[in-house]
Amino acid sequence: MIAARYPHGMTEAVQNVLDQALKLSVKERAALAAGLLASLDGEPEPQDEVDAAWTAELRKRLDRVRAGEPGIPWETVQEEIEARLKERRGG
C-alpha cells in the first residue's frame, strides 16, 4: 500500500484514492491536486465581479499616484516579504 507512507488519519477510502492517484504521472497528479485544492475554495467569484473589483483597485491606486501620494519603497516591501517568508520557514 503506497498510502502507508502518508499516515495522516486517512480513512480506507481516502487511502485507496491516494494509492490510485500516486500511480498517475506527475502531470496528472498536479492537475488532480490543483482540482482538489480549487474545490476547497468554494464557488469562484463571477468573473465580472472580479474584473470590477480589480478595476476599482487600479483606479484607486492611479488616483493616489496622480495625487502625488508616496508609495511604499521597494526596499520596505522586500523586507516585509523576506520577514514573512522567514516566519513561515520557522526562522
What do these coordinates show?
The protein is mainly α. The protein folds into 2 domains: 2-40, no CATH class; 47-88. The chain has 4 helices and no strands. It has helices at residues 12-21, 26-40, 47-66, 74-88. It is elongated. The mean pLDDT is 89.
For the structure shown, list the relevant keywords.
about 90 residues, about 0% strand, elongated, 2 domains, about 65% helix, mainly alpha
- Principal-axes shape call: elongated
**Beta strand count:** 0
How does the helix and strand content classify structurally?
Answer: mainly alpha
Average of pLDDT: 89
Distance between the termini: 36 Å
The largest pleated sheet is described as:
none
**Percent range for β-strand residues:** under 5%
Radius of gyration, CA atoms, in whole angstroms = 22 Å
Number of helices: 4
How much helicity do the residues have? 55-70%
Contiguous runs where pLDDT drops below 50 for at least 5 residues: none
Outline the fold blueprint.
Elements: H1 12-21, H2 26-40, H3 47-66, H4 74-88
Give a summary of the structure in a few sentences.
With 91 residues, the chain is mainly alpha-helical.
